[in-house]
Amino acid sequence: MTNTRTIVLDDGRTRATFDGATGALTGLVNERGWNVVARPELGSAFRLLVPLDGRRNNVVEGTAQRPPSVEHTETTVAFTWRSVVSEHGGAHDIGVRQAYELTDGRLVVRTTIDNRSPLVVENVYAPVLGDLRPPTVDGTLTAYRHDYGSGMAQPMWPQFQNSAGYHGVDVPTQLAQQWMAGYGTPVVPYTLLQSDGQGLYVGVEEPTVEFVAWHAELWPGYADSLEASVPLTDELAGVPVRTRFAAVHIPYLLAGQSRTLVPLALEFYEGDWHAGADVYSRWRETWFAPAAVPAWAQEPHTWQQLQLNSPEDELRLSFSELVEVGREAAAAGVSAIQLVGFNEGGQDRGNPSHWPDSRLGGFDELRQAIADIQALGVRVVLFAKFNWADRSRDDFTTTWLQHAVKDPYGDYYLYPGYRYETATQLLDINTRRLVTMCFLSEAYLEECLRQFDVLVALGADGILYDECLHHLPSWCCFDESHGHRYGAPTYANDLELVRRFRERLGDRPDFLFAGEAVYDREFEAYGLSYHRSENRHHLPLHRYTAPAQQMMTAVTGFDDRNMVNQALLYRYIVSLEPYNFTGRLTDFPATVAYNRRMHELRVAARKWVWDGRFSDTIGATVTDEAGSIAHPYTVFSAADGSLAVCVANYGTAPVTWTVRMDGAPDSYRVRAVDDDEWSDTDGRVTLPPRSAAVIVRA
């Protein structure tokens, strides 16, 4: 046991320093000299939230404790506090152990909490970077993370994006969020702290269903709130200027409970966000086992999504009329139809019932319609949703309330629901509110299986589980009558539910399990992910880290060339959805025709753009006539190592770009979506407005 003032772990790639008297991480430096804990006096060890009666916000600050005992080897250091003192509650019989291990440039942190007190340990901030800033004051810092089917970028320096609002926090605060499910694991398993040409990866070190959020605070606040600017001084108004970044665990440790929390890994990388994502991908390869995908869903193909009814009772098509939809799909080259709103009450009403609505024709008519469409060579996939129960159901209180996720006060979590069609509902007057169901309730899982049986009995080719990626607005369930611990993570059985579906289904390799914007680990359960990516500056972070997984995007415009172009560039299946998936394919012939042209090019170049590996912009450079990097373009590598580049012109004027592939001569072939044949080029490609092309080496 030692307790020297400064403790160092150094493997030649990364140097980590600690204050032996406080256990604080006082420095983390890469080979280029970037220290992500800029000032050692602002280093931190951990922070706990231990609520008291009448004082919920009671914090235990790691650096305010008595000196810990220390165990130190060449590659490890561990700090142990047998008890702690909180800000308002005095001494508590709560033990904390933080163990660090540095190998091959990767610092792994394991935190154990032993709660021998009568209180509850709700939050644990660990590890904590107490003074995060870029290598130079004039540099930049951005947090990159997974988001809904893609990626998000949140500025941290010289602007700091506040995602927590102004009324609930003292200082600008950032939680990993574009939408609420993006706060943390399992949806967002890591954060990239990206500076100029280098960055720091921070991520969970084991696949987990436990909730870990990504959190940052800017102290003491903005220099200029209009610009959201970080003060570029060491001190402001007598307070040290710093960004404090942490992983926040939500363990809800009751009296007498002890737990080692999810380990975290920190690793520097050289390059942009792609290099940081590569750190995740290398770790992912050690555990990831992709779900089986039916052979038909592995081929280049197109879908249509069609809603039959909403909660406001449009009753658009009867089941007996669906065969005509199937004929239109076959004529348009569409291979699969996703049917939505076939259930009692329509889409987002009557949950979790999947029983076909009798007003549309009932069970037998839908089963016959599915068979008739399949006879045309078109697959039918049924929309499914198991997350919630509709609070407006007559039997909500007697049947579903007992399975609801409960908050610490014993109340159910209420999701606002979805508003459809009429002014009454668009104004949120009569919206069907949805109550989150607990997947850790065995009784509720059995009900999900019964609902799945209905979908299978209808003869469908698969299901698309809408919103399978979240259980909003909940993260934890506190109803121990469900058979789980207090504060158990509500995402815990996401994969287990689909495993039981597959077991129930039996030997059906042609049956597709698809989901909406599945988070990365869910690709172990789902063979296809559907999302929406209509953004000119779409950030394909999830596609980059999951290049082999099937992903599909919505195309809704009536001459939607650019969304079809985007699908080509990012290897997305197209889901055709006129009138926001309430219309027919005959409603937007221009989009259907252009998609068929894109499909022909995709098939012609499938060696690269379908069967090859997507690497975003890595492997080639595309420049405009001024020599600036063009956007968008993507690179694919075939099994034989040859490359292809996809380029798109989203604009309304022609552009001429120059393509250069790494290690390839300046002799290429090019084919645009509108072309019938390949043509030779020296790398210069002229793209008409709203067009895309594939370039391969000659």
Give a brief outline of the structure.
Helix content is 16%, strand content 32%.
Features:
698 residues; 8-stranded parallel β-barrel; 13 helices; 32% strand
Summarize the structure in words.
The chain is of the alpha+beta class and 698 residues long. The protein is built from 13 helices and 45 strands. The strands form ten sheets. Strands 6, 7, 10, 11, 13, 14, 16, 17, 22 and 23 form a ten-stranded antiparallel β-sheet that branches. An eight-stranded parallel barrel has the order 24-25-26-30-33-34-35-36, surrounded by four helices. A six-stranded antiparallel β-sheet has the order 5-4-12-21-18-15, with no helix packed on it. The protein starts with 5 loop residues before the first strand and ends with a strand.
**Total helix count?**
13
Radius of gyration using CA atoms only: 27 Å
| Beta-strand share of residues | 25-35%
Give the biggest beta sheet.
Answer: 10 strands, antiparallel
Instruction: Characterize the quaternary organization of these chains.
Output: single chain
Coarse structural class: alpha+beta
Low-confidence stretches: none
Tell me the overall shape.
Answer: globular
Mean pLDDT: 96
* Terminal residue distance: 66 Å
Please count the beta strands (DSSP E, at least 2 residues each).
Answer: 45
Range of helix content: 10-25%
What's the structural blueprint in terms of helices and strands?
Elements (H helix, E strand, L loop, with lengths): L5 E5 L4 E5 L5 E5 L17 E3 L9 E3 L7 E4 L3 E6 L2 E3 L3 E3 L1 E10 L2 E10 L7 E10 L8 E7 L2 E8 L15 E3 L14 E5 L3 E7 L7 E8 L15 E2 L2 E2 L1 E8 L8 E3 L3 E7 L2 H12 L10 H4 L3 E6 L14 H10 L4 E5 L21 H14 L3 E6 L3 E3 L5 H5 L13 E2 L7 H4 L7 E3 L5 H16 L4 E4 L10 E2 L10 E2 L4 H12 L6 E5 L11 E4 L9 H5 L4 E6 L5 H9 L2 E5 L1 H4 L7 H16 L1 H4 L3 E2 L5 E4 L9 E5 L5 E7 L5 E7 L6 E5 L6 E3 L2 E4 L3 E7 L1
Parallel strand pairs: 24-25, 24-36, 25-26, 26-30, 30-33, 33-34, 34-35, 35-36
Antiparallel strand pairs: 1-2, 2-3, 4-5, 4-12, 6-7, 7-10, 8-9, 10-11, 11-22, 11-23, 12-21, 13-14, 13-16, 15-18, 16-17, 17-23, 18-21, 19-20, 27-29, 28-29, 31-32, 37-39, 38-41, 39-40, 40-45, 41-44, 42-43, 42-45
Helix pairs in contact: 3-4, 7-8, 10-12
